[in-house]
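Notes from hallway chat w/ T.B., transcribed later so I don't forget. T.B. wanted the structure written out for a chain they're using in a teaching module, and asked if we could keep both sequence and C-alpha cells in one place. Agreed to drop them here.
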Amino acid sequence: MEAMTTAAGAGPVEVQRVVSLPGPRVADVLRTLAAVRPAADRRGLIDQMRELEDVKSAAAAKQARIAVAYDLATRREQAAAGVPADELGAGVGAEIALARRGVPGAWRQAPGLGESLGG
C-alpha cells in the first residue's frame, strides 16, 4: 500500500496498486462451466452439486476482493482529480450493487464488505 494525499491536502488516503495478472478471464471460466455435463450416477450428481457449491463460494470471495479493488481504484482516481478526502468513494456502493444486479445500499449487508467499502 502507499499513502496518497488529496489535492486539497485533507490528509493521506491508503491506496493499493491493482495489478492485473495473466490468467483466465471470467468469460473463460463461464464457458468451461457451461461445458460440464451431469454425472452418470447418483453419487456423481451429488458430488457435482457439492463442487458447484464450492464454485459459488469461490466466486463470491473473488467478487468481494474485486469490489474492494474497485473501491480502491475509484478512490485513487478521485483523489488524483482533487476530490476532498471526505467524499472519496462516493457512489461506489451503488455501482457495485448495480454490477451485482442488486439493490443500491444492499452491499452494506454483505459480511465484511460494507466495512471495507466505508459502510
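Follow-up for T.B.: The beta strands are 2-5, 12-15. Might be a good example for the class.
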